[in-house]
Design brief:
Layout (H helix, E strand, L loop, with lengths): L32 E8 L9 E8 L7 E8 L2 E2 L7 E2 L9 E9 L8 E2 L3 E2 L6 E8 L9 E8 L7 E8 L2 E2 L7 E2 L9 E9 L8 E2 L3 E2 L6 E2 L11 E5 L2 E2 L6 E7 L5 E2 L5 E5 L9 E8 L4 E7 L8
Length: about 300
């Protein structure tokens, strides 16, 4: 008996499975949304540069950029589209806002208008000051000289506080310290506070001065011509610091003398003395401070 072989071809059963997404639309892009906008500083002055601080979110986690429009007193400021507002655009009392519009590059979000900030009064600022005169004596009035600026252009007043040798002169609130309240060697200082009626500026203390030694003052006037053969002139002087005074002749005709303690000038005129001689008197104190008096003398002899 012969063996028979049978070959059976097996064909796999092919199944086509569909994902079932046919007809579905892709998810739509969601616009970004701003949650808050704050302007810094919150209490600005006219000199301030303002900045917008923005918080926003994007549901699709797309990167977000912002568009800015600054607003002053309800009106858009033309050309101000940065996140900062430079100074020079403001004045006292202005209400400032910023409108921010977010974008994810595909769609813009809803514009967000910040709460307003008010531009405050700027306090005045003392830039420099000094006590005048720079070299002061006991018989001077002392005066305060101040250079001050006010960003808002307000009128500025000042209050003063004088001190002598570290002790406050409580009764003197003016910008002038009258003579008679200080003497040689005293240290004088003053503090100055500016006020524009809305804000008080920073108090500054000016550089102190030391009251200098005063030269004597000649108080008499000379007779400018002789009367006979003897010429006399009583020179008088006082010293504001009450220092002792010494009299001297710097220029004088031959034979003229002055008493160095009393200041009496005496000159016996001789026949040969003619013309209009120059006379120069020097008075000095014990510390060497000096004053001078110059004049010419007309010689008139009796019987001439």
């Amino acid at each position: 008996m012969k063996s028979r072989f049978f070959i059976v071809a097996l064909f796999p059963f092919m199944v086509n499975l569909s994902c079932g997404t046919e007809g579905q639309k892709p998810k739509a892009n969601a616009p970004p949304a701003i949650t808050s906008v704050n302007i810094l500083p919150e209490r600005p002055y006219i000199q301030a540069e303002l900045s917008a601080v923005v918080q926003c979110q994007d549901p699709d986690n797309d990167p977000v950029t912002n568009q800015y429009q600054w607003v002053k007193n309800g009106e858009e400021i033309v050309g101000e589209n940065s996140y900062t507002l430079k100074n020079g655009k403001l004045k006292k009392g202005d209400l400032i806002q910023v409108r921010v519009t977010p974008s994810d590059g595909k769609v813009n979000g809803t514009p967000f208008l910040s709460a307003p900030v008010k531009v405050l009064n700027s306090p005045p600022l003392i830039q420099e000051g000094r006590i005048e005169p720079k070299v002061a004596y006991a018989n001077d009035h002392l005066k305060v000289s101040v250079r001050c600026s006010d960003a808002d252009g307000d009128t500025v007043d000042y209050t003063y506080q004088w001190e002598k040798n570290g002790v406050i002169l409580s009764e003197d609130k003016k910008g002038i310290l009258e003579r008679g309240q200080f003497k040689k060697g005293d240290s004088i200082i003053v503090t100055v506070t500016p006020d524009d009626s809305e804000s008080i500026g920073k108090t500054i203390k000016l550089e102190p001065i030391i009251i200098a030694n005063s030269p004597p003052i000649i108080t008499s006037s000379p007779p400018n011509k002789t009367d006979g053969n003897i010429y006399t002139y009583q020179v008088t002087a006082n010293d504001p610091d009450n220092d002792p005074i010494i009299f001297a002749l710097k220029t004088a005709p031959k034979g003229m003398e002055i008493d160095k303690r009393t200041g009496l000038i005496r000159w016996e005129i001789r026949k040969g003395d003619q013309g209009t001689p120059l006379i120069e008197i020097e008075v000095s104190d014990s510390e060497g401070a000096k004053s001078f008096q110059k004049y010419t003398l007309s010689i008139v002899l009796r019987g001439s």
